[in-house]
Amino acid sequence: MVFITNEEILETVRMIQAENLDVRAVTVGISLDDCSARDVQEVCERIHDKLVQRAGRLVPVAREIQEKYGVPIVNRRVSVTPIAEVVASDDAESFVQVARALDAAADEIGIDFVGGFSCMVQKGFTRGDAALIDAIPAAIGGTQRVCSSVNVASTRAGINMDAVMRMSDVLLEVARLTADHGSIGCAKIVTFCNVPEDNPFMAGALHGSGEPEASINVAISGPGVIRNVVAHNPDASFTELADLIKRTTFKITRVGELVAREASRMLGAELGIIDLSLAPSPAVGDSIAEILECMGLERAGAPGTTAALALLNDAVKKGGTMATSSTGGLSGAFIPVSEDAAMARAAAEGALSIEKLEAMTAVCSLGLDMIVVPGDIARASLAGVIADVMAIGMINSKTTGARLIPAYGKKVGDWVTLGGLFGEAPVMPVNTRANDKFMARGGRIPAPLQSLTN
Amino acid sequence: MRTSVIVTALGPDRHGLLAAVATTVANQNANVDDVSQTVSNGMFTMIMFVSFDETETTLADLQATLAHTGEEIGLQIIVQHEDIFRFMHRV
């Protein structure tokens, strides 16, 4: 019997029972390299069989781990090889069929989402890439569990501005197709710069070409735990605050490490990574914005917000890195607006603008995430917002993503309810100054000097 | 192989709470390795280290019976494998 003090035991119980500590997702990454075939129907059958074989036991295994350790596992997911690399076709309808097959397999094994309806086009399109992007509206509009991501930029390649424009069109089309549900389809599409190949979080999860046959990637959570630590230390200096956050993140990450090891053993898949991201949820207290408020800001967006987020994000990484040797994925604090009730409130009150969120993107994870913009936004304006986020990732050699929701028929100030963990958010204003001549230039923004590291 | 779990029980104090939890554990053929309890401002807090092997009971059975006992005596009773505490607080 290992000696554990009563205080440590009660701290663990309090974190789970009162502070919403959970494991946000256990994601099985699955290679579909052996699922290619000339006939798309055969591809669909092979994908179905592979998902059932590799992840058929994911749901009962996650339940067993949850009950054994008493820590909730919120989502069970699968990420797959980018589908553009699996399907040898330039026919969009073939890709839609594959999306339906992914959806059916996900439904059969009972998982929440399957990610990887994806392609990498930072330097240019193959015919298959173009067909997959053409298929995204029908694929996302016609499925429940499929998530899509397109990598349009990287530090090594620059920004494919044609792809950025194309993604703007895709989002506007998906928003229209899913208008009856707040244009929720757009919540399942991420446009990336420097996409990670082992990310367990949706909607951007995919299983990259450098990954093993199958791997377990675990996403931790725990903003509520950090929030309470910060709230209970109102007089701590910045150095003391960073230390408190590091110590707490260490404990949170250890839970993720334990769950990952157990799932890896039980499912016979390699232990992939622990993603050190603090992922908020719409539940009260489970919020990144509330952590910033507890640090002493009236609202997220007040002057000092970017500095506060930088402190938080860095401390989370330092504490997490000590807790596991398998870091990866996105690993940084998330700042989604709709999925974080206090962030949405700050946006509704005008304390938080898209421009401020863009600045925050430079110091934390992902980027402009779950932000609802007017449904009548110009395609060049939407593309311009995406391009700005990609530029931050490209220049800073980091992952950035855009998950923007141009809510069909909605105007600035309207609230859009997306439901469940997607939450709700006000429609935020976007600068309406024209940018169409800039966006119409076409081609690629060259790779920056930072790409020349060899 | 013996399984070690930690049982925590929280709730308003009254007579016989520790006895009720211990009796349920005993009826499941599991062993109490260590126990401590305090009452502060009328709130009962108990931490019990329990172990068993597969011929005696299972984690699921122990959780179910203790949850039932907890409902009867007004306590929130949580049963967790000790590894979560070991992992979180020790390297």
Question: Any overview of this molecule?
Answer:
The complex is a heterodimer of chains A (454) and B (91). By secondary structure, chain A is of the alpha/beta class. Helices cover 43% and strands 18% of the residues of chain A. Chain A has 14 helices and 14 strands. In chain A, strands 1, 2, 3, 4, 5, 6, 7, 8, 9, 10, 11 and 14 form a twelve-stranded mixed sheet that branches. In chain A, strands 12-13 form a two-stranded antiparallel sheet. In chain A, helix 5 (127-141) links the parallel strand 3 (113-120) and strand 4. The model of chain A has no long low-confidence stretch (mean pLDDT 95). Chain B is α+β, with helices and mostly antiparallel strands. Chain B has a single domain, classed as ACT domain (Alpha-Beta Plaits). Chain B is built from three helices and four strands; from the N terminus they run βαββαβα. Chain B has a four-stranded antiparallel sheet with strand order 2-3-1-4, with helices on both faces. In chain B, helix 1 runs antiparallel to helix 2. The mean pLDDT of chain B is 96. The chains are: A alpha/beta (454), B alpha+beta (91).
Overall geometry of chain A: globular
The ordered H/E elements of chain B are EHEEHEH
Element-by-element helix/strand order of chain A = HEHHEHEHEEHEEHHEHHEHHEHEEEHE
Query: Roughly how much helix do the residues of chain B carry, as a percent range?
Result: 25-40%
In percent, how much strand structure appears in the residues of chain B?
A: 35-45%
Distance between the termini of chain A: 51 Å
- Give me the oligomer status: heterodimer
* Total strand segments of chain B: 4
Please state the CA-atom Rg of chain B, rounded to the nearest Å: 13 Å
Number of helices of chain B: 3
What would you call the structural class of chain A?
alpha/beta
The largest interface is: A-B, 21 and 29 residues
Largest sheet of chain A: 12 strands, mixed
Instruction: Look at the structure and name the CATH superfamily of chain B.
Output: ACT domain
The name of the CATH topology of chain B is: Alpha-Beta Plaits
